Amino acid sequence: MIHDFLELPTFVMCSIAMLLSTTISVTALIIIRRKLNWETFRDNHQVGGFLFNALGLIYAVLIAFVVFATWGDYNSAKEYCDREANMMQDLFLNSEALPENIRTPIKEKILEYLTKVIKEDWPLLSVDKSNPSSRHTLLELWRIYMGINSFENEKQKIVFEETITRLNNVTDFRRMRILSSQNHIPAVIWTVIIIGALTSVGFSLFFGTKSLAVQATMTSLFAMTDSVILLLILALDHPFTGDIKITSLQFENIFSALKNIAY
Prior knowledge:
Layout: H1 2-6, H2 10-35, H3 45-94, H4 100-125, H5 132-146, H6 154-182, H7 187-204, H8 212-236, H9 249-259
Helix pairs in contact: 2-8, 3-4, 3-6, 3-7, 3-8, 3-9, 4-5, 4-9, 7-8
């Protein structure tokens, strides 16, 4: 359900979030204003304002921390993808220095792996799943390298050692890419920030203004801001889903370049 919601256009998601938050906050305000006269809140404005500022500061620090953490994770996920794609390109080009009998099989497996990552991995990443098929192709690539028993010269041996290092890195970056799609903000943190948002908006309902329309406007703007911030955190927490998702463009560009290189 969350993934389906995040796949909506950003404008639609924001509109839904703002509409719901505005409806709920204004409805709550109207109910309170009907039961209590706004003038009864005047005597409590000074103390209430101090407490509201303290609450707002605590919540702002919490939100800043969560946004910073999720933004960092989002950038890390993008870096894993870029480095994995670059390593695959290096493996393809370095294969030219390896024994001739294994060059073509290596290049074929690399192109096969890139194809599966682009066509199969990415749709699965958006729903927090991994692709066993591309993993199998990577293991087959490992078997090709592990099957090399002899070298024609010292150059091939040096290139092979460097290639194994890069293949190790590809395996690590692939694993980190998949984990980035599956590791999300813990439920306890979501509980805290949602309660904080509800508390801050709810606290604002107990400040009275003579005009209901004015207070309703201020309250709805406050609620809309909170809802959009929560939406931002949710989107960053799912780096392979939605309009701001990390795409497979890097893999696609490298695949297009490599497939045109003659074996």
